[in-house]
Amino acid sequence: MRPGLPIGVFDSGVGGLTVLHECLVSLPAEDFLYLGDSGHFPYGTKSADELRERAAAIAAELLGRGVKMLVIACNSATAAAGEEIRALGAQAGVPVVTVVGPEAEIAASISGNGRVGVLATPATVASGAYHRALDALGRPLTVTEVAAPDLAPIIQQGPTFDEEVLNTVRGYCQPLREAGVDTLILGCTHYPLVAPMLQRMLGRDVSLVTAGHAIAAAIQREMAIRGELAEGQAEGDYRFLVTGEVDAFVEVGTRFLQLPLAGRAERVEV
Ligand code: DGL
Predict the structure, then answer these.
(1) For residue 1, is it within any domain?
(2) Is the pLDDT of residue 1 over 50?
(3) Ligand 1 pocket, 98 CB below 6 A?
(4) Residue 114: what pLDDT?
(5) pTM
(6) Range of the domain at 136
(7) CB neighbourhood size of 3 (10 A)
(8) How far, in Å, is the centroid of ligand 1 from the Cα of 77?
């Protein structure tokens, strides 16, 4: 038992805050330590080798500070380095929860016509991680993957809700509409911010699948099995380590987290 230790979460910047948001809502008694690698953003256009290096360094930083679980809240990092980080966690006796698998499971189970879309960064699409995860579920599916090189950067840079973002989203929806997908995996943790735009362009009948709920449920299951789930009425703490500029992270991140972030973030070199 490691009572008192936080759950470590990381992403290339603010995107993973959409996952942390669901965790804070679903697991209010837990403490969280979130590392935003905004000094090395974006991950989505990096090579697999670069991503493995970044992910390993960040995992080592969080494990060194003491966490009871590691959550990779980034599809690009999971796709390139998920297995390596699981191995690092196993060596330290710390479980690792990642994106990709949970969204694939949900998408495969809810799609009516078997046509599933994946909108993700170039790194995630190139890795084939979603294709593998969906294939492994044993249901015949037609998967349409669309790589979006500029979507996460324009969402992160802000303003998130302007004509440029709207037009970019519209362009990426075109092949998804042509393919007739009835389910779309938002394969990047930045994209929940543009979910209303996607829904408007794809139509109400298309189901959008994001990582947040599935990850929060996976954390809860794993912590309960290990007898390490924080319960009770006390509100947990949440703090941030940032490799880039702290003020920018706080300003943009508050939109993603939808909870206060100011006064909880400090800079770190990784
Ligand atoms: N949030 C990251 C992901 O889920 C991508 C953003 C980036 O390009 O760094 O893939």
Answers:
(1) no
(2) no
(3) no
(4) 97
(5) 0.93
(6) 100-209
(7) 8
(8) 8
